[in-house]
Specification:
Number of helices: 10
Helix content: 40-55%
Distance between the termini: 28 Å
Radius of gyration: 16 Å
Structural class: alpha/beta
Oligomer: single chain
Shape: globular
Strand content: 5-15%
Order of helices and strands: HHHEHEHEHHEHEHEH
């Protein structure tokens, strides 16, 4: 059954994402649940990416972007449809997808391509299989991050984030606080039973 893409994602977060993408805003106005989490948690800063990875990611700076973190099979196709809707508003927008299991990166990339999105794995850019600036100029719409340890840093770079494990039943959702602490709007699906307290705080 084909359900409306955004019907599977919290409507408030959807509105926040659209506002960010359409207006190009990068900062929230006033206190939000994210501010309260940040004030209470005082987490250690995310480790910066390596110089090579940072250089690759910097080629996409200046483009509106959102992160889909810790995604699972069955979620990538939904997120691909969502990104196509974002592209209809901002054709230069970028999706940074981080599968929960990096060994699934090639599968996630193919899912995005099957949805009509120009996508590539980060490792292909790093090994020179594609030139980053050339790929950007050719309209790369999505980057699949097949490296561990980068998710927190990516949450901090993007305009908004989606946290996976929440669009399909049986997983319970992944760490919402990690995304919220980046101070950006957080998207989640309806299945967040393992993150109930955090999900309630972000409503």
């Amino acid at each position: 059954v084909d359900v409306p893409v955004w019907g599977e994602i919290e409507i408030t977060a959807k509105a926040m994402l659209e506002w960010q993408i359409e207006l190009g805003a990068t900062e929230a106005i006033g206190e939000t649940p994210v501010d309260r989490y940040a004030a209470a948690a005082d987490p250690a800063p995310a480790a910066p990416p390596s110089a090579d990875v940072a250089a690759t990611l910097e080629t996409f700076d200046g483009r509106p972007s959102w992160v889909a973190g810790s995604t699972h099979r069955g979620e990538e196709s939904i997120l691909a449809r969502a990104h196509r809707r974002v592209l209809a508003v901002r054709p230069e927008a970028m999706l940074l997808m981080v599968p929960r299991h990096p060994e699934r990166a090639a599968e996630a990339e193919q899912t995005l391509r099957n949805a009509g999105l120009e996508a590539v794995c980060l490792s292909r850019l790093e090994t020179g299989a594609m030139e980053p600036t050339q790929s950007q100029n050719k309209g790369l719409a999505a980057l699949v991050v097949d490296r561990l340890g980068l998710l927190s840093a990516l949450y901090g770079r993007a305009h908004a984030s989606f946290v996976g494990g929440s669009l399909i039943d049986g997983i319970g959702g992944h760490n919402l606080i990690e995304a919220a602490l980046a101070g950006r709007p957080v998207l989640t699906g309806p299945y967040t039973e393992d993150q109930n307290e955090a999900a309630a705080g972000l409503e």
